[in-house]
């Protein structure tokens, strides 16, 4: 893999904005029980980004396969397709300054239409779909835009409380331009009543923050007689202009 | 009223969950044929410059039990201390070293292994050289926001003593939590999520 020179823009080298940890779920969310033994108890060490956090790997479009952004077909037998509600998920990756983030690698994974993951640790009753693997990836274009096709994942029960259910969701892993922007989150679907019952969602303190993870039905982007569309934008940490920063060379 | 800053807010994090492998290392969990290889599985080739080293990393929960469903990513400079990144303005990094790797913890043992090279030194903001280090990012079920830390090397005592980040650790007794122990060509590093030996995690 080599860095792509897809843009004439000068590379940005400013440090990233401080992360607002009150906007994210705290490390310890006791109603999401697994967090109890996996949450650091000491305060994290704060420091302004060094080059180690400012720099990050670049993934070129050349690494993508033809069906990487088509979960309906990328695991299916020839001529067949995954079962379920056909949807397109699209949106932009932006940073906190509101500018698009080009060249961002997005990786997504999800349960099938019945709420079952293709994973040996998932023993839910709902059957596997022989034509659905559940993973895909895309790299954003110059404006930060991306799109992929999939089936809407089903909700499923999970062993947290005696009767907890995850709302329908798609996991997203995002690489921006610096390693400090690295983020994993989940996308939910507009109108799903399970969102507000979910202990993982409810780990996010602010309802307005939760709402930024709910994709909107986008009828304009829907393909008639084929697939509905949902719009989901993702925001990564913004960064300072490097003009007034200490020069990394130290002069 | 003053002008609005018109800033957006970062998307809130959500846990990677127990099935993170499906998305990030599908071949590892038996989903073959979608991607040729899992991203980040191989870091060095025959032409990569630098000293070959192995990392053996575990992530331990509050009871000392290794996590068997975690995923670790590492990010490091090349042997000359240059990052393979557009933000690297000091020179061109080794074209045979991407600098980034990804490894899920073994589902039975919890062990995570990387074959890489020892990184060179990278400057701190003031231009002084930091000790050789590797940046780590850890996600798993039960971790709500990816954990950021560093791995330093036990055989770099002098450089470690002058490192600007290690110097910021107020409780000196915690510094060794960031130092991997050398054993031949292998560095062994246990990350403790909680307890007396809790690893120093970063907010940067």
UniProtKB/TrEMBL annotation, chain A:
The keyword DNA-binding does not apply. Residues 89-117 form the Intradiol ring-cleavage dioxygenases domain. This is Protocatechuate 3,4-dioxygenase, beta subunit. GO terms for biological process: 3,4-dihydroxybenzoate catabolic process. Belongs to the intradiol ring-cleavage dioxygenase family. The keyword S-adenosyl-L-methionine does not apply. One of its GO terms (molecular function) is ferric iron binding.
From TrEMBL, chain B:
CDD domains: 3_4-PCD_alpha. The keyword Oxidoreductase applies. Keywords: Dioxygenase, Oxidoreductase. It holds the Pfam family Dioxygenase_C. Its EC number is 1.13.11.3. Gene3D superfamilies: Aromatic compound dioxygenase. Coiled coil: none annotated. One of its GO terms (molecular function) is ferric iron binding. InterPro entries: Intradiol_dOase_C (IPR000627), Intradiol_dOase_core (IPR015889), Intradiol_RC_Dioxygenase (IPR050770), Protocat_dOase_a (IPR012786). Residues 41-195 form the Intradiol ring-cleavage dioxygenases domain. Belongs to the intradiol ring-cleavage dioxygenase family. NCBIfam families: protocat_alph (TIGR02423). This is Protocatechuate 3,4-dioxygenase subunit alpha. The lineage of its organism: Bacteria, Pseudomonadati, Pseudomonadota, Alphaproteobacteria, Hyphomicrobiales.
